[in-house]
């Protein structure tokens, strides 16, 4: 019983970890794409904000 619960928790954690990485990668690509259309200063501030959010987890 404990093994099943631990396995389910591990799968759940792996899924959450994958989702976080996927979302971060998507946001980073989106920001990079959008930043080419906007002034450099705005793009830098948005990227800096995202990097801070990324560090905070």
Could you give the topology of this structure?
Elements: H1 2-35, H2 40-56
3D structure, described in words:
The protein has 57 residues and is mainly α. It has one domain. It contains two helices and no strands. The chain has helices at 2-35, 40-56. Helix 1 runs antiparallel to helix 2 (40-56). The longest helix has 34 residues, at 2-35. The two termini are 32 Å apart.
Question: Short summary of the structure?
Answer:
By secondary structure, the chain is mainly alpha-helical. The protein has two helices and no strands. Helix 1 runs antiparallel to helix 2 (40-56).
Overall mean pLDDT: 79
| Stretches with pLDDT under 50, minimum 5 residues | none
| Radius of gyration over all CA atoms, rounded | 17 Å
Secondary-structure element series? HH
Query: Which class best fits the helix and strand makeup?
Result: mainly alpha
Distance between the termini: 32 Å
Overall helicity:
over 70%
* Shape by Cα distribution: elongated
Characteristic key phrases:
57 residues; 2 helices; 0% strand; mainly alpha; single chain
């Amino acid at each position: 019983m404990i093994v099943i619960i631990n396995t389910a928790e591990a799968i759940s954690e792996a899924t959450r970890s994958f989702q976080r990485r996927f979302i971060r990668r998507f946001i980073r690509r989106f920001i990079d794409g959008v930043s080419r259309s906007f002034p450099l200063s705005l793009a830098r501030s948005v990227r800096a904000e995202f990097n801070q959010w990324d560090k905070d987890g």
